[in-house]
């Protein structure tokens, strides 16, 4: 009897935790309502229409179809009452319009002391163990340059001392790049699946509907996003978010949650990029009398090159907007002179319908100027200088739809006829 009471206590404990954190806890595996991803949470979770990086795995499985660079993510969330969440994720986009993702999430509490008091005097017994585990595998396919669909399957496991249960769930989503530049729309349905069996009874999964829209202001590093979210047993709620990049490697984020059954709360976060391929994202979220929470992630990206001081965006004369870090930068730029022509070649990027621009810079000049009037579709270009002698720096960029990458590492050309 005592052990059953303690089991009930632990279920209520976690249920109340979820209730005061996210709303009424009336479903099983409420852990699924706890968001993963610090960049997304820094924007208040308004990420359904963005979702084009590794954070998007947990908001809209279709979003990774718009990703460009493979990445690993290591995430940690420290909640109140020593509750913590660990996560490791990986995604790989651009596999002939396919993208795949893998995520492992683990919620754990410290062991809880147990006592047997049936004999009249409390006697220690084995500690109680509580955890939740979710493993997931996702796929996305980009049917058109502006539209993608995604599917994700999850394996769920929960343990409350000697009570253990498991199940499966599915996520569905689509993301659409609207005809207006930098405007995106997304829809996702998360945690579809059969009821979960708990000994003598069954409970529903926390089914969640998400609608989102996001807009990046042209010629700036400001992104606005707005999500409408409907969780099972709750009313619709709205979540606005914003991301502002002050310099190329640093961004501030903020979001606001307005829920019907608990006090509204906000999130604040920042992101830092360094050493070309690494990102750190952090978010702070206060929960009033319950305490403050801290969540951080470390992301390792693969492929591409982020420019240094020499190719600052302030020097880009011909860009229509600020370059996007999402698109890999071409590598392997080489040159060969034959007569009065200079042949440029570089490694192609694995993106359907990708095109390339060629930029040049004269040493001791401050501007980088686009040489190609129209982007080229092949990974080669021929220069035919009209002067007898020339010294220039040459760069290449990738153009995908209405977004362009940063510039490649330059090569120095010394031409003499």
Structure write-up:
This protein has 417 residues and is mainly β. 6% of the residues lie in helices and 51% in strands. The protein has a 14-stranded antiparallel beta barrel. Strands 21, 22, 24, 25 and 26 form a five-stranded antiparallel β-sheet that branches. The chain has a three-stranded antiparallel β-sheet with strand order 19-20-23, with no helix packed on it. A hairpin with a 2-residue loop joins strand 7 and strand 8. The longest helix is centred in the first third of the chain and has 21 residues. The protein is elongated and about 100 Å long.
Task: Give the helix/strand layout.
Layout: H1 2-22, H2 38-42, E1 71-78, E2 84-95, E3 98-108, E4 112-116, E5 123-128, E6 130-144, E7 147-160, E8 163-177, E9 183-192, E10 196-198, E11 201-203, E12 208-216, E13 222-231, E14 237-247, E15 250-257, E16 265-274, E17 278-286, E18 292-301, E19 334-338, E20 341-345, E21 355-361, E22 369-370, E23 380-383, E24 389-400, E25 403-404, E26 411-416
Antiparallel strand pairs: 1-2, 1-18, 2-3, 3-6, 4-5, 6-7, 7-8, 8-9, 9-12, 10-11, 12-13, 13-14, 14-15, 15-16, 16-17, 17-18, 19-20, 20-23, 21-22, 21-24, 24-25, 24-26
């Amino acid at each position: 009897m005592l052990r059953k009471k303690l089991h009930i206590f632990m279920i209520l404990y976690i249920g109340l935790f979820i209730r005061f954190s996210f709303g009424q806890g009336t479903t099983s595996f409420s852990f699924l309502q706890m968001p993963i991803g610090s960049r997304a949470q820094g924007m208040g979770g308004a990420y359904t229409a963005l979702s084009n990086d590794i954070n998007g795995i947990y908001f809209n499985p279709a979003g990774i179809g718009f990703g460009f660079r493979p990445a690993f993510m290591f995430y940690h969330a420290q909640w109140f009452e020593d509750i913590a969440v660990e996560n490791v994720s990986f995604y790989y986009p651009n596999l002939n319009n396919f993208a795949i993702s893998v995520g492992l999430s683990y919620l754990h509490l410290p062991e809880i002391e147990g006592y047997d008091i049936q004999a009249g005097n409390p006697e220690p017994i084995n500690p109680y163990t509580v955890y939740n585990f979710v493993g997931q595998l996702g796929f996305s396919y980009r049917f058109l340059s502006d539209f993608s669909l995604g599917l994700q399957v999850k394996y769920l496991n929960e343990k409350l001392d000697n009570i253990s249960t498991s199940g499966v769930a599915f996520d569905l989503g689509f993301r659409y790049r609207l005809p207006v530049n930098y405007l995106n729309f997304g829809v996702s349905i998360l945690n579809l699946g059969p009821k979960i069996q708990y000994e003598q009874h069954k409970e529903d999964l926390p089914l969640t509907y998400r609608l989102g829209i996001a807009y990046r202001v042209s010629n700036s590093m400001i992104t606005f996003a707005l999500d409408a979210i409907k969780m099972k047993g709750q009313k619709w709620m709205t979540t606005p978010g914003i991301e502002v990049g002050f310099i190329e490697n640093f961004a501030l984020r903020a979001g606001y949650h307005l829920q019907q059954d608990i006090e509204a709360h906000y999130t604040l976060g920042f992101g830092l990029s360094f050493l070309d391929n690494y990102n750190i994202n952090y978010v702070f979220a206060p929960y009033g009398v319950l305490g403050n929470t801290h969540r951080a992630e470390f992301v390792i990206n693969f492929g591409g090159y982020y420019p240094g001081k020499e190719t600052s965006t302030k020097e880009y004369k011909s860009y229509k907007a600020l370059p996007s870090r999402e698109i890999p930068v071409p590598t392997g730029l080489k040159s060969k002179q034959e007569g009065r022509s200079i042949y440029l070649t570089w490694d192609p990027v694995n993106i359907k319908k990708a095109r390339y621009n060629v930029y040049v810079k004269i040493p001791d000049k401050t501007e980088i100027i686009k040489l190609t009037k129209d982007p080229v579709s092949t990974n080669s270009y021929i220069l035919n200088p009209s002067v007898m002698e020339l010294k220039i720096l040459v760069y290449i960029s990738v153009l995908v739809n209405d977004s362009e990458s940063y510039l490649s590492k330059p090569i120095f050309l010394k031409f003499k006829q």
